Amino acid sequence: MNPANYLLLSGVLFTIGTVGVLLRRNAIVVFMSVELMLNAVNLSLVTFSRLKGTLDGQVIAFFVMVVAAAEVVVGLAIIVTIFRTRRSASVDDANLLKY
Amino acid sequence: MISHLASASSTAVAAGDIKLPSISYSALSPILVVFGVACLGVLLEGFLPSRLRPQVQPVVAVLGFAAALGCVVSLAGTHELTAANAVAIDGPALFIEGTLVLFGMVSVLMFAERKADPDGGALVADAASLPGQGTHRLAARNSQTEAYPLMVFAVAGMMLFAAADNLLVMFVALEILSLPLYLLSGLARRRRLLSQEAALKYFLLGAFSSAFFLYGIAMLYGYSGTVSLQGIAVSSGLLGKTDFFLYLGLGLLGIGLLFKIGAVPFHAWTPDVYQGAPTPVTAFMSAATKIAAFGALLRVLYVSFAPTQWDWRPVVWLFAILTMVVGAIVAITQRDVKRLLAYSTIAHSGFILVGVAAATQNGISSSIFYLLAYGFTSLGAFAVVMLVRSGDGEANDLGQWQGLARRSPLLAGTFAFLLFALAGIPLTSGFTGKFVVFSAAIGGNATFLVVVALVTSAIAAFFYVKIVVLMFFQEPRAEGPVVVRGSVLTYAAVGVGIAVTLMLGIYPQPVLDLAREAAQFGFVS
Question: In this predicted complex, what is the ipTM?
Answer without folding.
Answer: 0.96
